[in-house]
Design a protein that fits this description.
This protein is an alpha/beta fold and 309 residues long. The protein is built from 9 helices and 10 strands. An 8-stranded parallel sheet has the order 2-1-5-10-9-6-7-8, sandwiched between helices. It has a two-stranded antiparallel ribbon with strand order 3-4. Bound molecules: zinc ion.
């Protein structure tokens, strides 16, 4: 399994009191380093280019993030803040997923690995085509899905999102593109308050909202009965995952009751779907997760389940 990360992802600093802190990435990296390393290959994330970002984003968004402001901290919305190192971190967070797509889906793969986990930040799934929001600057999974379609010629790419928040940005970017499937479970009502089951895109979007207090059993039922059958029907050639761990019961920003075992379960289910449909190609990237201890142990459970099959 490939693990993509970059030390510069620690340089994005939205402020001392901000939940999306550099310590989050330290927690994930420490936990991943504690796993057996034999089947993990660590790689330095490359930076995404402007042309790559333009596959999913407008010039307005690129300028908002990449043109250096007069001063820092630079507030993009009520909870999305940039520091000196933020633009570079955001380029690397996207580049990590693109690097994984190229390594695993390219015509001449340089690795036998078929799974990757990108330990990067800032997260991405709230960023729309033209607007950074909700801690997110660029939408890494949306750019990566387009890369798989436009550069690698794939006809069916699935994006799976189990972050506790709805990936409104991802959905908005792909909902008119039948080559890309978007599946999400999330707490509703909760920020950004989208993701109702009636939001269906062009038949390529499936949302399974969960009420506050929903536990692992409800989460697994939503995936087993509603979302995974759609993944099977779609027969993806690649599965990209917005892996947010803020559905954990300890998370301070939300109210689901998931445990580490639930993240290991979804990892096994997704890997089994990837084995069945696309030669095991499963690429995950870190989204949310704001309890430092739960984030580390949940990300490790998710990765370990893929290592130890
Ligand atoms: Zn989240």
């Amino acid at each position: 399994m490939l693990i993509y990360t970059h030390p510069a992802c620690l340089q994005h600093d939205p402020g001392r009191a901000h939940a999306e802190s550099p310590q989050r990435l330290h927690a994930v990296l420490d936990a991943l380093r504690g796993l057996p390393q034999e089947r993990m290959e660590w790689r330095e994330a490359p930076a995404a280019s402007r042309d790559q970002l333009a596959m999913a984003h407008t010039r307005r968004l690129l300028d908002a993030v990449l043109i250096e402001p007069l001063s820092f901290p630079h507030q993009l919305d009520a909870d999305t803040v940039m520091s000196q190192g933020s633009a570079q971190a955001a380029l690397l967070a996207v580049g990590a997923v693109l690097g994984a797509v190229d390594a695993i889906c390219g015509e001449h793969p340089d690795t036998p690995a078929r799974q990757a986990f990108c330990a990067v930040r800032p997260p991405g799934h709230h960023a729309t085509m033209s607007t950074p929001m909700g801690f997110c600057l660029f939408n890494a999974v949306a750019v990566a899905a387009r890369q798989a379609v436009l550069i690698h010629g794939m006809e069916r790419v699935a994006i799976v999102d189990f972050d506790v928040h709805h990936g409104n940005g991802t959905q908005a970017i792909v909902e008119h593109d039948p080559r890309i499937l978007y599946l999400s479970s999330h707490q509703l009502p909760l920020y950004p308050d989208s993701g109702g089951a009636d939001e269906r895109g062009v038949g390529n979007v499936f949302n399974a909202p969960l009420p506050a207090g929903a536990d692992g059993e409800a989460f697994r039922r939503a995936w087993r009965e509603t979302l995974l059958p759609e993944l099977d029907r779609f027969q993806p050639q690649l599965i990209l995952v917005s892996a947010g761990f803020d559905g954990h019961w300890l998370d301070p920003l939300a109210g689901l009751l998931l445990k580490e075992a639930d993240y290991a379960w979804i990892a096994r289910e997704l890997l089994s779907a990837a084995d069945q449909h696309c030669g095991g190609r499963l690429i995950s990237t870190l989204e949310g997760g704001y309890s430092l201890s739960a984030l580390g142990s949940s990300a490790a459970a998710y990765v370990e389940a893929q290592l130890s099959r």
